[in-house]
Amino acid sequence: MNQQELLLYISKYFSRFKEQVKILNSNSEFSINIHAENVLINILNVIYNCEFENVNYSENKNYDSIDLRDNSNKMSIQVTATSGISKIKNTLTKYIGNNHYEQYDGIKVLILTGRQKRYSQESLDAIIQDRITFKENTDVIDFTTLYIELNKQNDLSKILAVKELLEQQFSDTQTKPSIRKLCSLKDLCQTIKPYLNENNNLFINFGPNSGANSKGPVRWDLTLWYKSRREIILPNNKIILELLDVNKDLIPTEHTKTVTKFKNHVFAFEKHCEDSLFDYSQHIFPQEFPQLIANGIKEN
Question: Which of 2, 15, 27, 33 has the greatest CB tally within 10 Å of its CB?
């Protein structure tokens, strides 16, 4: 797939994202706006080379004029579905009034439903009064702005990463394996093992850490990690869960706790894939589960 085709996919997903927000908001369904913040964090991190966090989560409250922030790069973003200038003026008034300009170099307003063609720069200047630089043509952004910026950077690794992040949310491609009832614990373990091995190899080679023991230098190959996670690891986990559920009568009682820990890990990891800020450290992969599978294969 060439770069132009990748960008075409990104434009399609951005358009779907925008229209979904519009449709749901028109029906007074606003939870999509919160979800959008979490989805966009990783995309914005890729495009702007930042490490944004959702302030409303980290501060455990609704922040006054900032939704996303990167303290290291001193960047801040307000995410909204409201495109009128009143929302922008209100954001800037609170931003200035709470002296956020002393901590951040500036703020961008990201409009999920699409920005207007023009905003009165004079009205905005009256609020900021030279305390920050805020230009209506560059600091009021939307999905089109993000697409143009990504295209301008002409960085294939970033384009691939953004495509994978959007595809994770909006891809219509889903497969459902056929799960059958097995005859023994050995059969069950032999069926599960290849899926576990594949997941483990992908984590070691492309995961955020250098090995399955979660030690070593952090990796930043977003493209391969997100792709393998979405297309292989999550589907493999679902197959394993279904195998365990369909064949639960084959699992000895003494292994119930281990199986439950694995299931909790799968659910928590999937939630983390949907929302990168979700902390699943309390449900890390249980190393006793692959040991259970290995021992089950050895049984006569």
Answer: 33
Express each pLDDT in 21-57 by its tens digit: 888 888 888 877 877 888 899 899 999 999 998 887 7
Residues 6 or more apart whose CB falls under 8 angstroms from that of 18 comprise 112, 113, 114, 142, 143
One domain for residues 114 and 234? no
Q: Which residues pair with residue 141 across a beta bridge?
A: 110
Number of residues that this document lists for the chain: 300
Give me the sign of the Cα torsion angle 26, 83, 159, 208: negative
Cβ partners under 8 Å of residue 226, min gap 6? 161, 164, 165, 168
Residues 181 and 160 in one domain: no
Quote the pTM value: 0.62
Span 1-20, pLDDT tens digits: 578 888 988 999 999 899 98
Structural domain that includes position 231: 176-298
Return the residue matching tokens 């894939």: 273
Percentage of the chain lying above the pLDDT 90 cut = 52
Note whether 162 and 43 are within 8 A (CB). yes
